[in-house]
Design a protein that fits this description.
heterodimer; A: mainly alpha; 3 helices; 0% strand; flat; B: 155 residues; mainly alpha; 2 domains
Chain lengths: 82, 155
């Protein structure tokens, strides 16, 4: 039987991803937000979960206005390296 | 919720200064505008657009209204929102031009990026006076929450 070990919530502004990609995590505007991720980062290093279920909003990235499913399940081969 | 209640609610949202709610009406109005923005997710489309902006719009998105077309070509971000753009699609177009959310927000509010950024770092925009258009003559107040400074663009 699987055991749910944690639930982590996060603000889901798409700009966060762009700031990360552009190396702005230490920028004064973004630093307070990215500092908030540190405890979760430490936690996940210590207690590596076997499975992580990510629930998120696509924000028009993979899907267009022509197809807006209420719920979709994304599947990928690649595994995130922690 | 019956039709009249929806109508009343919709009218109430239009009373918020500087806010253009992305509702079903704007979604319909902005379909081609958002589809254009969405097309910017592909590198080949970005290259084609940047090489010939009007040619790209005319050949692939002839159903854009004149006003939507003008907003795209003149980078009128608020104009796009008023004409049915959704910020999440619009961000693809912004990124194509090297513009961030922060830049677009600064342009849309008329504050400019630096003032907008400074206001957000000073606790964000106050809600005081920003609930109804009649409170501040239709203008959006740019007073910050923390120090109460006015971050409107200084002329």
């Amino acid at each position: 039987m699987a055991k749910i070990t944690a639930g982590i919530g996060c603000s889901h502004v798409p700009a966060i991803g762009a700031a990360f990609d552009q190396g702005l995590t230490q920028d004064a505007y973004w630093k307070p937000l990215f500092d908030g991720y540190e405890p979760a980062r430490e936690w996940i290093k210590k207690y590596k979960p076997d499975v992580a279920i990510l629930v998120y909003n696509d924000h028009g990235s993979a899907l267009t206005l022509d197809l807006i499913p209420t719920l979709g399940i994304g599947v990928a081969d690649a595994r995130c390296q922690l | 919720m019956d039709y009249n209640e929806i109508k009343t609610l919709k009218a109430k949202f239009e009373e918020v200064p500087g806010t253009y709610l992305f509702n079903a009406d704007r979604c319909r109005q902005g379909y081609w505008l958002n589809t254009f923005c969405s097309s910017m997710s592909k590198d080949e489309n970005r290259k084609a657009f940047l090489a010939d902006e009007t040619g790209y719009l005319d050949s692939r998105f002839p159903k854009l209204t004149k006003e939507q077309r003008r907003c795209v070509l003149e980078r009128d971000w608020l104009g796009m929102i008023k004409n049915g753009a959704n910020i999440y699609y619009m961000s693809k177009y912004g990124a194509t031009l090297g513009r961030s959310f922060q830049y677009m927000a600064g342009e849309m509010t008329g504050q400019g990026q630096d003032n907008y950024r400074a206001m957000m770092m000073d606790g964000g925009r106050t809600t005081k006076g920003n609930f109804y258009k009649k409170q501040n003559g239709g203008k959006v107040s740019c007073i910050s929450n923390k120090s109460g400074k006015d971050f409107s663009k200084q002329a």
